[in-house]
């Protein structure tokens, strides 16, 4: 049709590219989301870097005890390059052991990960020829990266100082270690904010008023021609049971109305004034079953023959046509290929898609002989008996097995991937906090050991445990604050970007950022304080003995 404003276009697409192409409406097959692929690859990389940073800090902490070893090796002729190779070799060996443990853990945790992904995954090192070389390459890179700073640092120590028990240049407040700890905190805070925002958005989705009821409603497909022909007898039999409150049939469920057409106010209007309007056909009990609200006018009646040529529209259609609610009833608009349609009622907008998409114009027509779905609203009492009765009645007319779903399950389908994302994001967040805490613990142990004599002198001069804890923790809390300031713009940018995928969303509030900073500061304080308290409990005689 040359006059039709939208022309069909055909294109060729390789089948292997279809899985990650989720921008086509009503395409077949389960789709992957390339954004999730990028997101979780990035998070996995961040967690891996955090682990490397943790190893660096721990290696530097251990360097106190190995300083004399390095000095002795240098004194008997060891070259700096030999020491670097030794420490890098140790780091690579630890990474190889880590790989072995990771393979075992991956196989053990695979069922849980498959559950999170919603897909059955397999783990076979020999199935993919590239997997083993990539893993060993990754181990080599991680070993060299995480061991580079400790190797360079340890090999730079001067033998004359280390053999005397002195380690120069260790008290710099703005050294590489401090930078790494700040980045650890910043990353943890970003992930905590992300997990909090995702949780609150999903809670908002679950509690937001949808405009229709989804509780205690059973839905099933009317696949059999006999079922469609005998809808009225089936309805009468079902409603005879006290536990069944209402019954309706329609071409689509309120959770996903997929059929659309074009409409405009007048036939003579330009094509540019046309707008897409979704449509579905229902019977007279559609509103009652799903608790849809009628704003003005009336709904279809089985006693009025002419209702088969009338429509009920939603508030968004009224706005698209430029009408007010008061003038909608009795008015007409033009639908492409069908002519003018008279409006007999206006219903309140409801979410017929997920909250990712805005509410669109919709028109409801009176059912014809072909319907796709039946919905039964039941009482919460004796659900199993009610389901058995529904199955018994429907099976009288159907050659297909009785398969049903609760309406709230149908609704949850829209957000399965989002829920999985939230769970995985939360898991990564907990992991990153643990790694950051371990790294901070190692650095705190290193710092307090360096300040053992200072703490001993302070105790001799009368310092209390409280004052010692404050002195030793204030620098770490300062690093948390710097990490918090760095994390705020990063978290705000990425979470705003993520929320843009939802037409209906929460707002980012100041308290979300403060809560994430408080959690990180609390974890840091507890971690560092444990080392400070341990150091303050040491008898000053022990710490000052060598003097």
Instruction: Give the strand tally.
Output: 11
- Main beta sheet strand tally, sense and closure: 6 strands, mixed, barrel
Radius of gyration: 34 Å
State the end-to-end CA separation.
98 Å
Tally of individual helices: 17
Order of helices and strands: HHHHHEHHEEEHEEHHEEEEHEHHHHHH
- What class, by secondary structure content? alpha+beta
Low-confidence stretches: 169-174
**Cross-sheet strand order for the largest sheet:** 3-4-9-6-8-7
Q: Say what oligomer this is.
A: single chain
Strand content bin: 5-15%
Instruction: Report the mean per-residue pLDDT as an integer.
Output: 82
What shape does the CA trace take? elongated
Give the % helix: 40-55%
What tags apply to this protein structure?
11% strand, four-stranded antiparallel sheet, 547 residues
Describe this structure as you would to a colleague:
By secondary structure, the chain is of the alpha+beta class. Helix content is 55%, strand content 11%. The protein has helices at 34-75, 80-117, 131-155, 159-162, 176-207, 225-229, 231-239, 286-290, 315-321, 325-328, 383-395, 407-412, 416-450, 452-460, 465-499, 510-536, 540-543, and strands spanning 217-221, 244-250, 260-264, 275-282, 294-297, 310-314, 332-335, 339-347, 362-366, 373-378, 404-406. The termini are far apart.
Q: How would you summarize the topology of this molecule?
A:
Elements: H1 34-75, H2 80-117, H3 131-155, H4 159-162, H5 176-207, E1 217-221, H6 225-229, H7 231-239, E2 244-250, E3 260-264, E4 275-282, H8 286-290, E5 294-297, E6 310-314, H9 315-321, H10 325-328, E7 332-335, E8 339-347, E9 362-366, E10 373-378, H11 383-395, E11 404-406, H12 407-412, H13 416-450, H14 452-460, H15 465-499, H16 510-536, H17 540-543
Parallel strand pairs: 4-9, 6-8
Antiparallel strand pairs: 1-10, 1-11, 2-10, 3-4, 3-7, 5-8, 6-9, 7-8
């Amino acid at each position: 049709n040359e006059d039709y404003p939208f022309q069909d276009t055909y294109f060729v697409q390789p089948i292997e590219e279809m899985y990650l192409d989720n921008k086509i409406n009503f395409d077949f097959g389960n789709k992957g989301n390339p954004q999730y692929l990028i997101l979780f690859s990035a998070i996995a990389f961040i967690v891996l870097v955090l682990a490397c940073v943790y190893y660096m800090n721990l290696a530097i902490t251990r360097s106190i005890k190995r300083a004399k070893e390095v000095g002795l090796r240098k004194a008997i002729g060891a070259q700096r390059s030999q020491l670097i190779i030794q420490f890098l070799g140790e780091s690579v060996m630890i990474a190889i052991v880590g790989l072995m443990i990771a393979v075992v853990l991956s196989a053990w945790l695979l069922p849980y990960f498959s559950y999170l992904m919603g897909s059955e995954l397999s783990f076979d090192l020999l199935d993919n020829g590239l997997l083993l070389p990539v893993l060993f390459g990754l181990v080599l890179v991680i070993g060299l990266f995480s061991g580079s700073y400790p190797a360079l640092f340890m090999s730079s120590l001067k033998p004359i100082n280390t053999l005397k028990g002195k380690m120069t240049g260790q008290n710099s407040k703005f050294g590489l270690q401090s930078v790494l700890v700040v980045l650890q905190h910043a990353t943890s805070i970003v992930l905590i904010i992300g997990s909090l925002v995702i949780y609150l958005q999903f809670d908002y989705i679950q509690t937001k008023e949808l405009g229709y009821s989804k509780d205690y409603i059973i839905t099933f497909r009317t696949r059999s021609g006999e079922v469609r022909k005998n809808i009225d007898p089936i309805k009468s039999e079902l409603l005879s049971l006290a536990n069944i409150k209402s019954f309706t049939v329609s071409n689509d469920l309120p959770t996903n109305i997929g059929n659309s057409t074009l409409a405009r106010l007048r036939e003579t209007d330009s094509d540019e004034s046309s707008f897409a309007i979704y449509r579905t056909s229902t019977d007279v009990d559609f509103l009652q079953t799903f608790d849809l609200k009628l704003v003005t006018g009336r709904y279809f009646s089985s006693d009025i023959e002419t209702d088969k040529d009338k429509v009920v529209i939603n508030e968004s259609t009224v706005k698209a046509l430029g009408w007010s609610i008061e003038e909608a009833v009795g008015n007409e608009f033009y639908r492409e290929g069908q002519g003018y349609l008279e409006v007999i009622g206006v219903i309140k907008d409801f979410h017929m898609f997920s909250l990712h998409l805005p509410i669109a114009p919709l028109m409801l027509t009176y059912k014809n002989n072909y319907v796709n779905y039946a919905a039964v609203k039941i009482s919460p009492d004796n659900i199993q008996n009610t389901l058995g009765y529904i199955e018994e009645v429907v099976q009288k007319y159907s050659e297909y097995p009785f398969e049903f779903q609760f309406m709230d399950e149908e609704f949850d389908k829209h957000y399965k991937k989002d829920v999985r994302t939230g769970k995985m994001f939360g898991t990564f967040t907990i992991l990153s906090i643990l790694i950051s805490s371990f790294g901070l613990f190692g650095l705190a142990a290193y710092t307090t050991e360096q300040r053992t004599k200072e703490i001993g002198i302070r105790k001799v001069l009368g310092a209390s445990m409280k004052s010692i804890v404050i002195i030793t923790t204030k620098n770490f809390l300062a690093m948390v604050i710097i990490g918090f300031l760095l994390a705020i713009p990063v978290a705000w940018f990425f979470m705003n970007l993520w929320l843009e995928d939802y037409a209906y969303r929460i707002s980012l509030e100041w308290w979300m950022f403060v809560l994430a900073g408080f959690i990180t500061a609390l974890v840091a304080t507890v971690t560092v304080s444990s080392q400070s308290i341990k150091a303050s409990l040491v008898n000053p005689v022990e710490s000052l003995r060598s003097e």
